[in-house]
Amino acid sequence: MTILTRASPQTLRLLALGLALLATILFFATQIEGYLSPRMFNRISTSAAVVLPVAVGQAIVIMTRNIDLSTGSILGVVAYMAGQLLNTMPDLHPVLAVLFCMALGAGLGLLNGLLIAWGRVPSIIVTLGTLALFRSFLVEWSDAKTITTASLPQWLVDLPSANAFSLGGLDIRVTVVLALAAVLVTGLALTFWRPARRFYAVGSNPDAAVMAGINAPRVVFTAFILSGAFAGLSGFLFLAKFGNITVVAGLGYELKSIAAVVVGGVSIMGGSGSMIGVLMGALLVDTIDNSLTRWAVVSEFWRDALLGGLIMAAVTVDTLASRQLARLRKGGAG
Amino acid sequence: MTQPVLELIGLSKSFAATQALKDMSLTILPGEVHAIVGENGAGKSTLIKIMTGVHQPDTGTIRVEGQSVTLRSTQGAQEAGIAAIYQEPMVFPDLNVAENIFISNRAKGRIMRWSEIYAEAESLIAPLGVKLDVRRAASGLTLAEQQTVEIARALSLKVKVLIMDEPTASLSAHEVARLLDIARALKAQGVAVIYISHRLDEIFRIADRVTVIRDGQHISTKPVAEVTEDGLVKDMVGRALESFAVKTAANPHGETLLSVKDLSRAGVFQNITFDLHKGEVLCLAGLVGARRTDVALSLFGIAPATDGSITLAGQQVRIATPQQAMDLGIAYVSEDRRKLGLAMPLPIFANISLASLKKLLNPFGLIDRAAESAMAETYRKRLAIRSPDSLIEVGKLSGGNQQKVMLAKWLETKPRVLIFDEPTRGIDVGAKAEVHAIIRQLASEGVAILVISSDLPEVLALADRVLVMREGRQVGILPIEEATQERVIALAAGQATSERPAA
Predict the structure, then answer these.
(1) Which domain holds residue B404?
(2) Same domain assignment for residues B436 and B366
(3) Residue B389 at interface with chain A, using a CB cutoff of 8 Å
C-alpha cells in the first residue's frame, strides 16, 4: 500500500509496463518453441527500432494535446525518395543520407504544423488529410515502380545486419543504437532543456501557456516538424531494414506509433509522458506484434485488432488505476 | 515628482460594435498600490489585457518608465516588467510547483538545473507563509494554493508592475490578510501593485490611490484617503445605490425541510448536523480548507457522504448521484463556473434549459425551440442578465452575468433546496446586490437555501443562521442576532474560548 501511495503515478505506470512486458515474454516463451533466442531478440529489437523514432515524434505531438496521423505516410514518402536518391547518388555519405531523410520528413511535418498552429485547424483533421495526401503523392510520384535492394548502395544493404556491439550473447544492431539515440537525446532534452519543457506546458494548460508568455502556436508547430523529422528517420531505418519499397511502405505506422505512445503512458490529454515510457511501449507493442506472427493460434488478420485492443486497454486501465489511486491517497491523507 | 513606472495615455479599444475602452488614461507610480474599481463590463478586463499585451489598443500610447513601448504579447509585457495574477489561477496541472513558478522565466538559462530550481522555488514560497511541496504536481492544488504559485511566479520575474485581478475572490479572511501583507511587501520593494477587487473594504485597507472606471471611460483617480465607500459606489454605478448590503429581517421560518444528522465523509468532514427550514437562509462560514464545499457536494451527490443521515421533508433519503439530488429537488450552484457550472461555448438559452430539457419536449420527443427561448427570455428579464438577447455565448458574458445564467438554469428545475457555493465570487457590487436580492426573494418564496461564502459581510447580510466549520468539523451554529464578524472569525480560526455546542 505504501508504495502505491508514495511512488509517483509515472513511476507506477512504468513499473506496470515493465511487468506487462515481462509477462508477455514469459507467455510467448511457453507458447513458441525457441522463443527466448538471440534470433528472436534481433527480430524484435530491429523491428522496434523502426517504430521508435516515429513514436518519439508522436509522443511530442501528443504531449501538446495534438495527434499526428500522417506519420505513416511521411515514413513511406521518405523511404521511397531516399531510396531513389541513393540509387542516383550511391556515393552520398551515410550521415548526409540520414539528414536528407530527416529534413524531408521535417518539411512534410512543416505543412501539418503550419495548418494546425496558425491555420487553427484541429490536428486530427489536418493530419487525416495529409495522411491521404502524402500517400497519394507517393503513388503519383513513384509511378507504381518499386525500389529494390539491388538499386541501393551496398553500405545500406549491409546496415541492418551490422553489429554495434554484443551484450551477453545478444547482438545490438547499429539501427537499434540509432533508434535508442533518438530516444535518449529526446528524453534528456524533455527533462533538462528549458525550451523543450514547453511541450508539456502547452499540453497541460494551453490557456495558461499563453498567459505565461509561451508562444503556443510556435511550440505546436515545432512539435509537428519534429514528428515529421522523426518519421523521416524511421523512413531511413525502414528503407535499410526492408530494402524493397513499394507505395504501401509505412502503412499503419501511425497506428503503431500511437499505440506505443499511449501504452507507454503518455497522456492522450496532453501534458505528461516520458521517453522511457515510449521506449517500453514500443517494445511491448512490437514484442506482441512479432510474437503473434509466429504464434499459430492467432490468425494474422487479428494482429491489428489486438493492437487496437491494446490501445483501448492501456487507456482504460490507466484511467481506472489513476482514479483509484487518487481515492486511495485522499483517504490516506485525511 | 517621481517618474511614473507606467503611463497609459488615451487608450481606446473596440471589439466589433462594442467600444470597450474610450480615451483611457492612467498613471501608475512606483511603490504604490493603485486600486481600479468598476462594474462588470466597465472595461477592466480589456484594460488588464492591454497592459499585459494580450490585446493591443486601437489608439493611444503606453509608456514604461518614460519609454514608449508596444506590448505585443504577455511575454513582451513581462519583459517590460508587467505581470498579472488572475481571478482564475493559471497553472499547469501536470508540471510540478517549482516548474510552474519558473515556466516563463527566461533569465534561468536553457538547461533545467532541477535541484537549483527546487531550492529557489522554496525560497520564493517560504516568505508567503504557505506550506507547499515544490516537487508535487500542481494538479489537485486548491485555488488558494494555485494563487500562491502564481504570486511566486510573478515575484520570480522581478516585475515593476504587478496586476492583481480579483486576487481575493476565492480566499477567506485569513488568506486575504496574508495576501495584503504580500502586497505591502511588494510595495516596500518599490513594485507598483495594480489591485482590482470588488471588495471595497480591501481597497480601503491596502490602496494608496483608487481609480474608478465606467463604460470604458476614466471617471476619477483619487487618493484613497479622500474617498468614501458610498462615493466610490456612486462613481462606479453612476448613481447613488441604496445600501448594497441590506440586512433583511429574518424570515419567519416554516417547517423543517432538510434535516442532516451526523453527516460524514471519511477523511473529509465529520458529524455535520443541522436543520434547514423552508424560507431559511443558512450560511456555511469558515476558512478555505474548512471543507464547506465538500458538505455541499455530498448533499448534491457528487461526493456522497459515507456516514450519517439526510432527511428531506420527513423522508429519509440517500443521495448518491447528482441525478438523485435533482429528482429530490436539490440544486447546487457551483463555485467553479468554468468547470462545473456552465457550458461556456453554448449560448445563454442552451445553458438555462440544460437541466430541464425534459420539460421542453414536444409530442415528438424533440426540444420545443420556441418554448426554450421563451424560458430563457423570461429569466434574462427576471434576473436582468445583461445581453441583447439569449443567443450570446455564455463565455462572452461577465462573471456576474454568468452567475445569473447559472442561477437561471437551477431555478428552472424548481428546487426545494438551493445550495449556493460562493454566489458572488468575482462579481461587482451592483450584480452582487442583485444576487443577494434574488437569494432573499427565493427564500421568501419558501425555498430552503444553503449559502457557502468566504465573504463575511455577505454572510452576515444574507443569513438567518450561520454554521461555522473548521477543518471538516462543525464548530457552531449562530443565529444571526449573535453572529458578528469577530465571533465568526474566532470560531472559524479556532480562537474561541467558549464554543457553543453544535445546535
Answers:
(1) 341-414
(2) no
(3) no
pLDDT in tens, chain B (503 residues): 678 999 999 999 987 667 788 899 999 999 999 999 887 667 888 899 999 988 999 999 999 999 999 998 888 888 888 988 876 678 898 899 999 998 877 677 788 889 999 999 998 887 766 778 898 888 878 777 888 888 888 888 888 899 998 887 767 677 788 888 888 888 887 889 999 987 788 889 999 999 999 888 899 999 999 988 878 877 877 755 444 444 455 555 678 899 999 999 988 898 999 999 998 999 998 876 788 889 999 999 988 888 999 999 889 999 999 889 988 999 998 877 777 778 888 889 888 888 888 888 888 888 888 889 888 988 888 888 888 888 888 888 877 888 888 888 888 888 999 999 988 877 777 778 888 888 988 888 889 999 998 777 788 888 999 999 988 889 999 998 888 877 887 787 665 444 444 43
* Total domain count, chain B: 3
Evaluate whether residue B77 is within a structural domain: yes
**Global pTM?**
0.71
CA distances from B80 to A9, A166, A202, B71, B158 (A): 39, 57, 23, 8, 11
Within a domain: residue B183?
yes
| CB spacing of A194 vs B110 below 8 angstroms | yes
Chain B residues lying within 8 Å of A203, measured CB to CB: 94
Q: How many CB atoms lie within 10 A of CB A132?
A: 13
Cell of A201: 506546458
From the list A194, A195, A204, the residue facing B95 with the nearest CB is A204
Together in a domain, B11 and B63 = yes
Q: Check CB contact of B314 with chain A, cutoff 8 Å.
A: no
Same domain assignment for residues B118 and B84: yes
Contact between residue B453 and residue B171 where contact means Cβ atoms under 8 Å apart:
no
Q: Residue A293 belongs to what domain range?
A: 15-23+37-322
Predicted ipTM?
A: 0.82
Determine whether the interchain pair A194/B108 forms a contact, defined as Cβ–Cβ distance below 8 Å: yes
* String of DSSP letters for A199-260: HHHHHH-HHHHHHTT--HHHHHHHHHHHHHHHHHHHHHHHHHHH--B-TTTTTTHHHHHHHH
Cα(A147)–Cα(A135) distance, integer angstroms: 16
Name the residue of chain B whose CA is nearest to A189's CA: B111
Question: What angle, rounded to 10 degrees, do the helices at A38-63 and A216-242 form?
Answer: 160
Partner residue opposite A211 with nearest CB, options B90, B267, B268: B90
- CB of B73 within 8 A of CB of B106? no
Of B77, B110, B267, the CB nearest to A193: B110
Distance from CA of A246 to the nearest CA of B (A): 42
The answer to the question of residue B257 being in a domain is: no
Q: Which amino acid is at B437?
A: A
Q: Are B286 and B478 a contacting pair, CB within 8 Å?
A: no
- Distance from the Cα of A195 to chain B's closest Cα (Å) equals 7
Statement to judge: residues B445 and B407 lie in one domain: no
Q: Identify whether residues B438 and B369 lie together within a single domain.
A: no
Which residues have C-beta within 8 Å of that of residue B414, sequence separation ≥ 6?
B329
Residue B230: CATH number of its domain: 3.40.50.300
Residue B40's nearest CA partner among B468, B433, B361, B474 is B433
Same domain, B138 and B36: yes
Cβ atoms B337, B408 nearer than 8 A:
no
Residues B356 and B424 in one domain: no
**Neighbour-count burial for A203-241, b at 16+ CB within 10 Å, e otherwise:** bbbbebbbbbbbbbbebbbbbbbbbbbbbbbbbbbbbbb
Return the CATH number at A181: 1.10.3470
Distance from CA of B265 to the nearest CA of A (A): 10
Residues from chain B that touch A210, judged by Cβ atoms under 8 A, are 54, 74
> Which H or E run contains B193?
strand B192-196
Same structural domain, B502 and B368: no
